[in-house]
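Need residues for this backbone.
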């Protein structure tokens, strides 16, 4: 297994939704042993501590439901810079924080990819499509907007322009099971790849993912993976404020991570929506760390899986 320089970046952002607690996420990942898990696998770890938001500037939105706009824009700017810098030094793992951190984290990765002259792909492991814009969100929660920002949808005038918006074929929403009607219509217009739980139930967990990974490999792309706690079924991962029944099981989630590791394509990762205040003795934080370990090479046996007739 190739050793990597894992850059841990804490993103204690809580402004993308209204339920407090996600700002404690980076500390919870550290307490759950993320650094030790990576070191035990032979990787180097550089923990750069927690990012602070950029200075707040005046920001307005025509949608009165939107809240914490100036704060979220400030986080987007600082996280974009931190992530781009980490991409140049190794393998960034952005520890959140709510999913609005994706606005900045994917921006930083996209800026690095553009300078490297390589296409960027996005694998969004989430119960939600996060395809609202600040103009369409009814909740006003900006953690539901990052994929729209990455895809270049209009309505983000308060935010820095996204560097090189991703075409739809480079975005895969995997594990989706909660989509608002406005998001659904917009997703159809943009023709983004949607592997929802119905597709997974019919085709299995492996085939749709391998098809997307084959596309990344064929184009020599960089792959950013965004892992939301609610990708997992709430019965095994309760520490999230946006629980949706019917998520991936323990084994399915580990299989996804193992397939990603075997592909050798993942170039950056973010871990989002962990709310330790809602956890049960740290079980969700520990599970997320275990999934990171699977993504980074942990195996039950260090040999290929046998195939049986």
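Answer:
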């Amino acid at each position: 297994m190739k050793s990597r320089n894992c850059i841990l970046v804490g993103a204690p952002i809580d402004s993308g939704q209204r339920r407090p607690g996600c700002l404690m996420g980076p500390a919870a990942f550290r307490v759950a042993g993320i650094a030790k898990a990576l070191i035990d696998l032979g990787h180097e770890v550089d923990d750069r501590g927690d990012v602070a938001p950029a200075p707040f500037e005046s920001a307005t939105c025509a949608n009165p439901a939107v809240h914490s706009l100036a704060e979220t824009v400030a986080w987007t700017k600082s996280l974009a810079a931190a992530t781009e810098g980490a991409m140049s030094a190794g393998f960034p793992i952005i520890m959140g924080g709510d999913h609005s951190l994706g606005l900045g984290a994917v921006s930083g990765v996209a800026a690095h990819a553009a300078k490297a002259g390589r296409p960027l792909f996005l694998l969004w492991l989430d119960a939600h499509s996060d395809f609202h814009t600040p103009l369409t969100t009814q909740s006003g929660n900006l953690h539901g907007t990052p994929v729209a920002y990455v895809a270049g949808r209009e309505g983000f005038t308060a935010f820095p322009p996204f560097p090189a918006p991703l075409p739809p074929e480079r975005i895969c929403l995997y594990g989706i099971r909660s989509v608002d009607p406005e998001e659904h219509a917009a997703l159809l217009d943009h023709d983004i790849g949607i592997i929802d739980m119905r597709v997974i139930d019919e085709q299995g967990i492996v085939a749709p993912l391998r098809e997307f990974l084959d596309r990344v490999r064929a184009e020599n792309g960089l792959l950013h993976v965004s892992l939301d706690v609610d990708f997992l079924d709430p019965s095994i991962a309760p520490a999230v404020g946006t629980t949706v029944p019917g998520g991936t099981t323990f084994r399915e989630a580990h299989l996804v991570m193992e397939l990603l590791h075997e592909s050798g394509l993942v170039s950056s990762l973010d871990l989002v929506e962990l709310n330790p205040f809602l956890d049960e003795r740290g079980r969700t934080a520990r599970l997320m760390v275990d999934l990171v370990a699977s993504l980074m090479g942990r195996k039950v046996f260090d040999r290929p899986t046998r195939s049986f007739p």
